[in-house]
Specification:
By secondary structure, the chain is mostly helical. The chain contains 18 helices and two strands.
Length: 446
């Protein structure tokens, strides 16, 4: 890989990194977790996790990438003489592969719902019909598989174009569109009767609801939403320009991620409350609950089309950042061309995605540790691979990488604030390893 390839502009960098973090995590996962994990109680823990834990981890990943200009595996190999560290990069690459597999199934649902919204609409269907239609769709196996494959091909099409002409370009076009749509939906939701109820649900803290489950869910979500613990940000860090301030970029992205998640919450819950629906349905919230809302609301079909288009945009700008680290790895470590790497990896992911989709068919035998493959990958990556990967990345950056490399990357050779560097280093070396260590041990013993 040409070491000089970087993002072309500051806006391009923000759009690409923002495109990675803003995804189904904000529009699909965050709302259902808020809905099923105690509303604002979850939100408070989530904000704390984002600022104190996720932000320093993202800074670490970006700096490892920018310093080495390497894929996640190569970054560890270059910075330590102990080969074992490069296994952390490999774990990341495997994790991101697993996430891409189930992610593309959900993105495929969005494509199918977009099609339904255009050609059939949601009006005139009862809640039972909507829910049974969704189950029927899942139970065909082939329909969600096909949709997932279409999504993977589209992602591959972008990544084959390379960094500037593929990934950066698509993000520069789609991220502003995403912003306009989500603000538009938010403004529309404002006019619904359930808006104030949604405000209370999202913003009135009820500390009694903060339990160990809320904390765990918030941790997993912070990693997922900020694309952390699997090297995606190491891969993108490799394309960050030398003059970009990593702390400033990270804070901008964290703020954007949180704002979009909240806007998605405000776009979704008013409708849910207006029509007296329970917000606790879990992962199918936006696919079972929302179509019902669209079926009842004025101009619901049109809103439905826009909404599922939004979900698709959010998904594809993230999925390119899942494919890129794996492609970067195959290109740099196995000397393949970009085109060959993309075709090879996408084929493997396609197979994994089809397995995920078929594992959701009723009575499927595609079960791992008592869960279907889809749920297993969703849970295992959030509970184990991402936190463990993040823990090891933090230990590596805080204790193994030479101090002056970290200092130079964070302060751009001493040109930016030193005090920020001090806080970053404290969090990185002591606070985060302690918190993550407790988190991982508790999860393992549960
Ligand atoms: N951050 C993305 C989202 O919120 O949907 C998900 C994601 C992207 C996870 C990239 C992992 C990754 F490497």
């Amino acid at each position: 890989m040409d070491k000089k390839i970087t993002f072309g502009s500051h806006f391009g960098t923000i759009a690409a990194v923002g495109g990675s973090v803003i995804g189904l995590g904000n529009i699909w996962r965050f709302p259902y977790l808020v809905g099923s994990s105690g509303g604002s109680a979850f939100l408070i823990v989530y904000i704390l996790c984002s600022l104190l834990i996720a932000v320093p981890i993202m800074m670490s990943e970006l700096l490892l990438g920018r310093h080495t200009r390497s894929n996640p595996f190569g970054a560890f190999r270059k910075l330590s003489e102990y080969k074992i560290w490069s296994m952390v990069g490999l774990l990341g690459i495997i994790t991101v592969f697993c996430i891409f597999a189930f992610y593309s199934v959900v993105a495929g649902w969005a494509i199918s719902f977009f099609k339904t919204a255009i050609f059939e609409g949601f009006t005139g269907h009862s809640s039972q019909e909507i829910s049974s239609n969704f189950k029927q769709y899942i139970n065909t196996g082939w329909q969600p598989s096909l949709a997932a494959l279409i999504f993977i091909v589209l992602t591959a099409g972008v990544v084959i174009g390379g960094i500037k002409k593929g990934i950066e370009r698509i993000n520069k076009i789609l991220m502003p569109v995403l912003l306009v749509i989500i603000v538009g939906l938010f403004i529309y939701s404002f006019s619904l009767d359930g808006f104030s109820q949604a405000m209370n649900f999202l913003l009135q803290p009820d500390f009694s609801k903060i339990g160990i489950n809320t904390i765990f869910a918030a941790f997993g979500q912070a990693f997922f939403s900020m694309s952390l613990g699997m090297g995606a940000m190491i891969a993108y860090g490799a394309y960050v320009r030398p003059e970009t301030s990593i702390p400033r970029l990270t804070l901008t992205i964290a703020l954007a991620d949180l704002t979009i998640a909240l806007l998605a919450g405000f776009a979704i819950f008013p409708g849910v409350f207006t029509y007296g629906i329970e917000p606790t349905s879990g992962p199918t919230l936006i696919f079972e609950t929302l179509p019902l809302v669209f079926s009842m609301m004025p101009a619901g079909n049109f809103i439905g089309i826009i909404f599922f288009f939004l979900v698709f945009i959010a998904a594809i700008t993230s999925s390119v950042s899942m494919l890129e680290p794996i492609v970067q790895f195959v290109m740099q470590e196995l000397n393949a061309t970009r085109a060959k790497a993309v075709v090879f990896i996408s084929t493997l992911i396609g197979i994994a995605a089809v397995l995920c989709a078929y594992s959701q068919v009723e009575n499927s035998s595609l079960i791992v540790f008592g869960e279907n493959i889809f749920d297993f990958l969703n849970d295992a990556t959030a509970k184990f691979s991402m936190p463990i990967g993040a823990f090891l990345i933090v230990i590596f950056t805080g204790w193994v990488v030479q101090k002056d490399i970290v200092y130079k990357q964070i302060t751009n050779d001493g040109r930016h604030s030193n005090s920020l560097y001090f806080y970053y280093r404290m969090l990185l070396r002591y606070f985060i390893p302690a918190v993550l260590g407790v988190f991982i041990l508790t999860t393992l013993f549960n």
